[in-house]
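**User:** Here is a favour to ask of a fellow structure person. Please take any protein you like and set down a full record of it. No explanation is needed for now; the record alone will do.

**Assistant:**
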Amino acid sequence: MKIFRLKRLAFFFLATALFWSCAGKKEVQKEAEDKYVEVKEAIQEMNVEVDSIYAWVNLMPGGPKKFNITGKVIVLPSGDYDANKLTLKRIDIFQRDVLHYMIKPTVQNPDKENNDGKVFLFSTIRGVGLNPGFNYDKKIDALFIFEQNGETFRYLVKDLKMEKAY
């Protein structure tokens, strides 16, 4: 009888923990989606030239499916920020207004400081595992999050086509 009670008690605690962990995840997801809608309404805070962005899913046999993004953007000067002092903190990937990835990319800045803006070469290098619900046949939006002296600046690139590598 004691074993039955212990099993029931353990099940109750596991079920409660699972419920609260899922509730927390939904809350974080909702907060991220709310921020996306907020950003979408005030879409471009920055003067950015998109040179190239490639987003693809690695579907090659022998390994797990992975999402990758790489490209080059140039942040042009503005009175709101010093382009040469900006850092690319994160790229958030959305699909149909749902946040799927918060990526901290590998970033290179090949140019020294200049008055024409700052070049950011970025990549996921090895890619990130596919999230459930992510449809690599649909387009994505990439929200670039830059930072300077603790202040955040955002730039949204919409409707990026997903490629597939076999």
Summary: DSSP finds one helix and ten strands in the chain. Residues 44-165 form a domain with the Immunoglobulin-like fold (CATH 2.60.40).
